[in-house]
Amino acid sequence: ALLFTSGSILVMSSFVILTGARPLLAQLIRREKLPFSGLYIISLLGTLWAILIKHSTMWTIIFAIIQAISLFYFLCSFFPGGVQALSMLGRAGGRSARALLAV
User: Fold this and answer.
1) Per-residue pLDDT reduced to its tens digit, 62-94
2) Which residue, 34, 58, 69, 97, shows the most beta carbons closer than 10 Å to its own?
């Protein structure tokens, strides 16, 4: 998880290099991206806390999963229709899960 977190920091650093710090910050604080960018930062710090300070496997896994989902959302939000495609997949997955649990 430490390598994954380091990789996530490097991905965000590459966005800073490619787009510049101010435009990226403006993207991160846009109303529709703010919940996921905030969640990404919290999960990034949480993963580091769980690995380096708490030494807890459970918290590391939880924060790493949240971090991966929010990073994936952030990357997809740069593609036209990316967020809508994720929403559609999420709804389809939710319906499938409900159908499996109903059986």
Assistant:
1) 998 988 888 888 778 777 777 777 778 778 878
2) 69
